[in-house]
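Example record for the data management plan.
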Amino acid sequence: MSANLNKLVVMLEMQNAMNTKVHEQWFTQGFEWYRAIWVECAEMLDHHGWKWWKKQTPDTEQVILELVDIFHFGLSLRIDGKTSYEDLAKQLEAELSNAQQADDFKQTLEILAASAVADKTFNAAAFAGCMAQMDMDVDDLYRGYVGKNTLNFFRQDHGYKDGSYIKEWNGQEDNEHLVEVVKSLDTEYADFAKLVYQGLEARYPKI
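Corresponding structural encoding:
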């Protein structure tokens, strides 16, 4: 299995685990993942800038974070409880390798959003086009995805629901600690997600 294919399998497994944590029977709930995609696209456009009547500078980091969020929803649309993760990963790898791009990022993003609105699907080729126009590769996507997913699990495990979770430690918010932990690790580690979780655990205040 190629490195990228393996990363896609891991992300699919993690997405199913997170969705199951939210609702054990999430397959049958009819959650509108496609709607989450186009809403995120609209929010991302504001971070990128689209208004011709005022000066705007793209917030690249925020745009990349939004792309990572969209991938969570895209994976959720693809998981059906029947097709194996490896087969799903192969489909995604093929589509991501065949990026669909318009003249600029805004137009490519509109292709992604249009597929979600009109067809209720995740257009992975257009998503890959957005990634390319933001200079992202699969490794960047994997790093961002695993980090965000692991932080979500960490929050849940440490009292996020009952309000006992501490979001700021040693003068930094948890997402800032996350960035530092992720940067210290090699994404090629087979247990990358586990190491991210352990890194957060080591930094979290002991009560």
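Summary line stored alongside the record: The chain has two domains: 3-146, 163-207.
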